[in-house]
Design a protein that fits this description.
Elements lengths: L4 H13 L7 E5 L11 E7 L17 E7 L2 E7 L10 H14 L3 E10 L9 E9 L27 H13 L5 E7 L8 H9 L4 E3 L3 H9 L3 E11 L9 H10 L1 H14 L1
Parallel strand pairs: 1-4, 1-5, 5-9, 6-7, 7-8
Antiparallel strand pairs: 2-3, 3-4, 5-8, 6-9
The structure holds hypoxanthine (HPA).
């Protein structure tokens, strides 16, 4: 389904009336990483099902609610669970929350996800700073008439993940003694995990991690002029590099690294 500008405004107005005023930062919390939103102070929590034009999240390990409040001294909106293309939503629906964050006044979005490690030096449980991405989803959220109110027809993607934020995130990881990995995230549509041949291809093409989210959101955010940072939780080695893959393992590993992930993200929110 295509989302019109009028619908975006309706969603934004609804959230403003609920008190979602002037957020600085939007955060999208991936599979198993939603707990960070529980640390938001003075929260206003709204389930996606109550928000006009929001799809409902269907993935296990995702709560499906929007949380507004203060985190590390910043006014934030966090998505506890995101929308994925593989759930059957249109790519415009998947990325609608990013545009709403922009219309509410945010200047930055932080994208997090669970991802499979393709780089042979990675271990499950590693956190990876996303330095760039490869859009391998087979689509692009900006296909269709350009929303001139949001951004240009041909957006520059040469610095999708903000370089200044990257260096601050490295600094925060160092202070916390977190061995932060970094690399290129390659976004597939899912819902299948990759084949070993696809993982070899991903590595040859320059990917360090593979996953089923983030890329459409980063594209829409840059189109809208938002600054973007991204952190992946490497929950497993990608297909062919370990015996078998399943969602249960993905969620278990995110839970194991939850404390470190939360500490890093809270310090990053304070530092940007
Ligand atoms: N592939 C794609 N998406 C993922 C993976 C993976 O190996 N692990 C967690 N999300």
């Amino acid at each position: 389904m295509t989302i019109t500008h009028k619908q975006l405004i309706e969603t934004t107005e609804y959230l403003r009336e609920k008190g979602f005023l002037e957020p600085e930062l939007g955060l999208i919390l991936g599979s198993g990483l939603g707990d960070l939103a529980d640390e938001i102070e003075n929260p206003i929590v709204i389930p996606y099902t109550e928000i006009p034009h929001f799809p409902a999240s269907t993935v296990k390990g995702h709560k499906g609610q929007l949380v507004y409040g203060t985190l590390s001294g910043k006014v934030v909106i966090a998505m506890q669970g995101r929308f994925h293309f593989y759930e059957g939503y249109s790519i415009q629906e998947v990325t609608l929350p990013i545009r709403v964050m922009k219309l509410l006044g945010a200047h930055t979005v932080g994208l997090t996800n669970a991802a499979g490690g393709v780089n042979t030096t990675f271990t499950p449980g590693d956190l990876m700073l996303i330095t760039d991405h490869i859009n391998f989803t087979g689509t692009n959220p900006l296909i269709g008439p350009n929303e001139e109110e949001m951004g240009p027809r041909f957006p520059d993607m040469s610095e999708t993940y903000d370089k200044e934020y990257q260096s601050r995130i490295r600094g925060e990881a160092q202070k916390l003694n977190v061995a932060l990995k970094e690399g290129v995230y390659m976004g597939f549509s899912g819902p299948t995990y990759e084949t070993p041949a696809e993982v070899s291809m991903a590595r040859t093409l320059g990917a360090d991690a593979v996953g089923m989210s983030t890329v459409p959101e980063a594209i829409v955010a840059r189109h809208a002029g938002l600054r973007v940072f991204g952190v992946s939780c490497i929950t497993n080695l990608a297909a062919g590099m370990q015996s078998n893959l399943n969602h249960k393992e993905v969620v278990e590993v995110t839970q194991r690294v939850n404390q470190v992930f939360k500490s890093l993200l809270k310090n990053v929110v304070a530092a940007i």
